[in-house]
Amino acid sequence: MQIGMFSVSDITRDPVSGQTPSEHERIKAVVAIAKKAEEVGMDVFAIGEHHNPPFFSSTPTTLLANIAAVTSKIMLSTATTLITTNDPVRIAEEYAMLQHLADGRVDLMLGRGNTAPVYPWFGQDIRKSLPLGLEHYNLLYKLWRNDVVDWEGKYRTPLQGFTSTPRPLDDVPPFVWHGSIRTPEIAEQAAYYGDGFFANNIFWPKEHFIQLVSFYRQRYEHYGHGTARQAIVGVGAQAYIGKTSQQAKAEYRPYFDNSPIYGGGPSMEETEDSTPLTVGSAQEVIDKTMTFRENFGDYQRLLFLTDHGGLPLGTVLDQLELLGSEVIPVLRKEMASGRGEDVPEAPTHESLVKAKYGDEPPRAPRPRANRGDNVTGTSPYEDSEEVTPIQYPRF
Predict the structure, then answer these.
(1) Is the backbone peptide bond immediately before 166 cis, with ω within 30 degrees of 0?
(2) Quick check: helix, strand or coil at residue 240?
(3) Mean pLDDT score, 245-270
(4) Are the beta carbons of 283 and 294 closer than 8 angstroms?
(5) What pLDDT was estimated at residue 393?
(6) 337 CB-near residues (< 8 Å, 6+ apart)
(7) DSSP per position, 314-374
(8) Cα dihedral: 30, 285, 4, 183 (round 10)
(9) How many helices (H) and strands (E) does the chain have?
(10) Residue of 73, 121, 171, 388 with fewest CB within 10 Å of its CB?
């Protein structure tokens, strides 16, 4: 079971102090937050991708590479990588490079994004969002698994004899989670490829996400990757911890009420009732989080949103300390109790290498100039894994 945190990278005015951090201050702060997450024993740090104010994380791989250089254990991920407006070739190359720099401590979550203007900014049509995302991932999947790719689709120029570089570390691509808040086709896509499905349920009522996760599990089994119980599921959470419930609510309320996402909507109490948000004592956070297994079954990854809405850096670091000392150890113990023996752990680079090679040494592709293709010296069709495009049922 992996427990970690994610940031949406917002730059928001602190409603208590009245101060708004600069981009530089916020970027440096999130590196400090990631280091603190590792220090308190979290397994994962994830950052979103956004290309519009008030967010700063337009280049997750650059940020995560810096964090990789100042950490040693924590898994680095995204929440999310835009599979629609990013070119799959760039995703393949940038995340393979990051994977090498981080010695395998990398996976990524793919999503279509929730900001409509991003599409024309990157030359895409939001009306094609779903088929665009599906086609882009089919290409990304091939680029990471085939040394030489010949490919043609509807939404980008064809590729002929193309090799993305660097090749994935140990010839094993980063594990992929598919993030979704509304679309069953994305759950279908995750199931088809045997990838993970991340239900970022922090904003919508749980009943919606229960249906999505259940559907993903059924289709995962349908495609022969394992039983429904063995499907790889991640969920989102959000908490603000105080010594007492009353203290927590008093401290967090101005941040909730002025949030660029929550502000002007349902009250904090109404949001707590209908979403995973918990504002209260450490025990209240534990109790609320333990209900997730009742809703979604045994799952592999839990990520807390910790630095949203203008919370100052010192407060975020204090919250991480409380999560690490008072919440996470109890969650680990409770979640291990009663967990099915057939339920797998979250994939890591080491486990994926072991699954592919067993006790044999992994393959290490090396460029061979002027000999066939530019990596292996073989023909484009030798030692490659062909992937048939997914055929989707009607919904």
Answers:
(1) yes
(2) strand
(3) 90
(4) no
(5) 52
(6) none
(7) HHHHHHHHHIIIIIHHHHHHHHHTT--TTPPPPP-HHHHHHHHHTTSPPP-----TTSSST
(8) -100
(9) 13, 12
(10) 388
Buried residues in 329-367 as b, exposed as e (16+ CB within 10 A): eebeeebeeeeeeebeebbbbeebbeeeeeeeeeeeeee
Q: What pLDDT, on a 0 to 100 scale, did the predictor assign at position 369? A: 52
Mean pLDDT, range 331-345, rounded to an integer: 93
Check pLDDT > 60 for residue 386: no
Q: Tell me if residue 107 falls in helix, strand or coil.
A: strand
Name the nearest CA neighbour of 95 among 121, 133, 60: 60
Question: By mean pLDDT, which of 7-11, 204-208, 323-327 is the weakest?
Answer: 204-208
Q: Looking at 190-194, 250-254, 292-296, 378-382, which range is the least confident one?
A: 378-382
| Model confidence pLDDT, tens digit, residues 102-118 | 999 999 999 887 677 88
Map out the domains of the chain with their CATH numbers. Answer: 2-357 (3.20.20.30)
Contact 126, 116 (CB under 8 A): yes
What Å distances lie between residue 155 and 37, 86, 121, 160, 190, CA to CA?
39, 12, 16, 16, 21
Taking each helix axis as running N to C, give the angle between helix 23-39 and helix 60-70, from 0 to 180 degrees, rounded to the nearest 10: 50
Which residue is associated with the tokens 């045994």? Answer: 298
The Cα–Cα gap between 278 and 120 comes to 37
Report d(CA 251, CA 16) in Å as an integer: 9
Task: Give the pLDDT confidence score for residue 123 in this predicted structure.
Answer: 85
Interior angle at CA 88, CA 113 and CA 69, nearest 5 = 80
Residue closest to 162 by CA, chosen among 171, 152, 170: 152
Write the CA distances from 225 to 237, 296, 345, integer angstroms: 27, 19, 15
Decide: helix, strand or coil at residue 116.
Answer: coil
Fill in the DSSP letter of residue 231.
S
pTM above 0.85, yes or no: yes
Q: Write down the pLDDT at residue 146.
A: 95
Does 187 have pLDDT greater than 80?
yes
State the Cα–Cα distance between residues 107 and 95, nearest whole angstrom.
Answer: 8
The pLDDT, as a whole number, for residue 15 is 95
